[in-house]
Amino acid sequence: MNLINQHALVCGGSKGIGKAIAIGLAQLGASVTIAARNAELLENIIHTLPRISNEQKHQFLIIDFEQTEDVRKKIHLLTLSHPVDILINNTGGPASGLIQNAAIEEFTKAFSQHLICNHLISQICIPYMKERNHGRIINIISTSVKQPLDNLGVSNTVRAAVANWAKTLANEIGEYNITVNNVLPGATRTERLEALIQKESTAKNKSISDIESEMKKSIPLRRFAEPKEIANAVCFLASPLASYITGINLPVDGGRTKSL
Ligand SMILES: NC(=O)c1ccc[n+]([C@@H]2O[C@H](COP(=O)([O-])OP(=O)(O)OC[C@H]3O[C@@H](n4cnc5c(N)ncnc54)[C@H](OP(=O)(O)O)[C@@H]3O)[C@@H](O)[C@H]2O)c1
Predict the structure, then answer these.
(1) How does pLDDT run across 98-149, given as a tens digit for each residue?
(2) Which one has a higher pLDDT value, 179 or 192?
(3) To which CATH superfamily is domain 7-186+226-252 assigned?
(4) 109 CB near ligand 1 (under 6 Å)
(5) Whole-number pLDDT of residue 1
(6) How many whole angstroms from 130 Cα to the centroid of ligand 1?
(7) Is the CB of 254 under 6 A from ligand 1?
(8) Average confidence score pLDDT of the chain
(9) Which residues of 144-170 are buried (b: 16+ CB within 10 A; e: fewer)?
(10) Which residues pair with residue 140 across a beta bridge?
(11) What gap in Å lies between CA 40 and CA 165, rounded to an integer?
């Protein structure tokens, strides 16, 4: 697997799964741009990203995926000087909660941050990918695409929309040798997972270790994923080894999803 001379844009690349993806792609030789809100964190990570060739130049973009007009302007500017070969659509997950209690604003916010942003960014990147007759779009979604998760009502709803958007796009742009795939992480050790467990522990008045044990029982591999394990799947899909794979949902969940 070799990604030298390729530019990867990793959205949400400053923490958790996105950060692990940025490291993985840089290890394969890609020049990586990480995008998120916290400037200090982004700057620190840029200096730690691996370099295996002198061609590699890593950079960061301060961006808020809730501000769609700003996203459009900043990604457009980035691609003028650094067209994107590998796009990783990823951002923070929607808040947890029962769907019956969800406010309308929660749906519109999540829809905008996930689906609209993915769409806007892809639309800006695709013309260059078409010119080069090569491109990779990989969306980090969730296993809830296949099986809704309890207490993640808004997330379950919006994830399904993102998955169908991606499949439709894969059908349209395959002829330009651009692949579009979805990676569906299971429970992965990141700040988001810690926050969800903490909330569950408070709501159920149970210890964090009890909540974790209950969650692990539902996973055939009996453990949470490390972010790097999700990143490994993404790196494979971004690489030439995955040249004939498009339009799929790939769960990386230790077997937790009950359906095929
Ligand atoms: N961890 C899991 O167990 C798990 C399981 C299934 C699905 N997922 C999904 O996978 C995705 C990544 O999860 P994660 O666990 O890696 O999350 P995380 O640790 O919370 O990291 C989220 C990343 O996105 C950035 N981000 C969040 N909101 C943003 C915004 N409005 N604008 C720009 N950047 C933003 C964060 O940086 P800043 O805060 O600095 O902006 C950070 O870099 C999420 O959609 C999550 O729901 C995670």
Answers:
(1) 999 999 999 999 999 999 999 999 999 999 999 999 999 999 999 999 999 9
(2) 179
(3) NAD(P)-binding Rossmann-like Domain (3.40.50.720)
(4) no
(5) 87
(6) 29
(7) no
(8) 97
(9) bbbebbeebbbbbbbbbbbbebbbebb
(10) 183
(11) 33
Domains of the chain: which residue ranges? 7-186+226-252
What one-letter code names the amino acid at 8?
Answer: A
pLDDT band at 72 (very low <50, low <70, confident <90, very high): very high
Q: How far apart are the first and last CA of the chain?
A: 28
pLDDT for the residue 8: 98
Which ligand 1 atom lies nearest to the CA of residue 63? 33
Q: Which of the four pLDDT bands, split at 50, 70 and 90, describes residue 68?
A: very high
Has residue 75 got a pLDDT over 90?
yes
State the pLDDT confidence band at 36, using cuts at 50, 70 and 90. Answer: very high
**Pairwise CA distance, residues 199 & 220, whole Å:** 24
- Closest listed residue to residue 7, CA positions, set 122, 136, 127, 130: 136
Quote the ligand 1 centre to 232 CA distance (angstroms).
17
Q: How many C-beta neighbours within 10 Å does residue 64 have?
A: 15
Cβ pair 71, 117 in contact under 8 A: yes
